[in-house]
Predict the 3D structure of the following.
Amino acid sequence: MTRKGRRLTLIASALGTLGAALGLVLYAMRDNIVFFYGPSELAEKAPAPGARLRIGGLVKQGSVTRGAEKSITFIITDTKKDVAVSYSGQLPDLFREGQGVVTEGILTAPGQFRADTVLAKHDETYMPRDVADALKKQGVWNEGAPKPAGVTK
């Protein structure tokens, strides 16, 4: 084999090994990739039940209902569409109606979501960037208000 042939063989095997490693990494991460949706986007795109996602918006006033033990249901809204969320567990101390929230879990049916994680804002000026962007896209964001700490746009 010539010197040029050995070099090409080495390069081809290195690219093959790199491609296989990348494929294994992506395969291992497939369950950890979670997409963020607002309630209106969720209604438009209608992902299949059982899909793992993040849903963010505002907790609708008067929607929080506490059940047996630590179960709770509430509605996330962007003022145009609503998503009913059920959650079992300890809520963040700052969780309340009218505040921004991001939930992570599984879509059980259209407009029904079972959360396994609930994240609430940490002070009066912070809102997760994805939630703020979704609210801006829906025309709900008040541009005259001071920008939340997590939003740079």
User: Anything to note?
Assistant: The chain has two domains: 1-31, 35-137.
